[in-house]
Amino acid sequence: MAVSAAVSRGPDLLRAARREPSGGTPVWFMRQAGRYMAEYRKIRERHGILEICAQPELAAEVTLQPVRRFGVDAAILFADILLPVVPMGLGLRFATGEGPVIDRPVRSGADVAALRTFAPEEGLSHVLEAVRLVRRELDGAVPLIGFAGAPFTLASYMIEGGSSRNFVETKRLMLGAPAVWHALMHTLADVIGAFVRAQVAAGAQVIQLFDSWVGTLSPADYRRFVLPYSHAVFAAVAETGVPAIHFGTGTATLLEAMAEAGGDVVGLDWRITLEEGWRRVGATRAVQGNLDPAALFAPRAELAGRVRDVLRRAGGRAGHIFNVGHGILPHTPVDAVQAVVDLVHEAGA
Hints:
This protein is an alpha/beta fold. It contains 16 helices and 9 strands.
C-alpha cells in the first residue's frame, strides 16, 4: 500500500471528527475516486458504475486509487447512495446523459407499502465485502469512510424517479399526503440505519450521511418532515461508537437544525464562510469543508490562496477536516487535487 505515514494524517481525521487535538488538518475529497482520474477511466472503459459496485474487488480497487495517488487522509468507499433501492424492489439503472433512473417511482401509500425491507448482509452483501477488502488493504494507513444517502435525499430520488431541479413530486407527496411521507421516511430511516451499522461491523471507521438535496427545503419543513428521520439514522451510528459526518449542500439556512439532527461533524459548502458556519453549528461539533470544487480549475496561485483562506478561517481549532464543499467535478486537473493535499499537509507540518 503506497501511503507514507510521514505524509498521511489518517489518524488525525478520527481525532478531528471528535474535536480532539491532532498533528495537523486532515484532508480528503468527496468523489475523490472518479472520472478525473485516468486509473478510474480505464476501469470504466470496461465496467459500468453498477457493475463496479456489484464486484467487491473492483469497488475496493477504485476506493484505493486516490489514496495511493494523492496521500489523502481517508478512503471513502466507492458505492452509490441509491444502491438500497435495488433490494427494496424499485429497480435502478444509469442512463447516458440522464444519470440515475429508478424504474418504479414511489408516489402513493400503496407504493410505500410494497417496499421490501431487507437485511444488509443479504441485499447489499457486495458492499459489505468491499468494506472488508478495503480495510484489509489499507492495513491501518488511513481510516475508511462508509456512507449512505440520508432519508430525505433517498426519498427524493425514489419519488422523482431520478434527479430533479425543483423536487415538485417530492414536495407534492410531502405536503399533500403527509401520512404517506412519514411512512416512507420511517421505512428509509430503518433501512439506512441498518445499512450503516452493517458497514461499521464490516470495518468502516467513519460514516458520512449524504443529504445532498436537503437544501431545497425551508427550515420549518426540514424540522417537520426530515429532522426526526435523520436523527434516527445518526442514533444508529452512535450505537456503533464511530464518528458520523452530516453532509448537505445549499444548507446555509439549515445548519442549526442539521446540527440538532445529529452527526459529530457537519459539512459546510462554499456558500457560507467556514467560521460563520462553525458558529452556527456550535462549538460542540466538528466541521468539514469548505473549498468550492470549481476552485480546483483556477490558476495555481488563486487555488493556493483559497486553500489557505479556508485554513485561516478554521484558525487551527481542533475539529476541522479539509474537504471540498461538494464532490470533485469531472475533468478536474489531477495536479490541482495533489496541490491541495500538499498545501494542507504543509500548513500543518
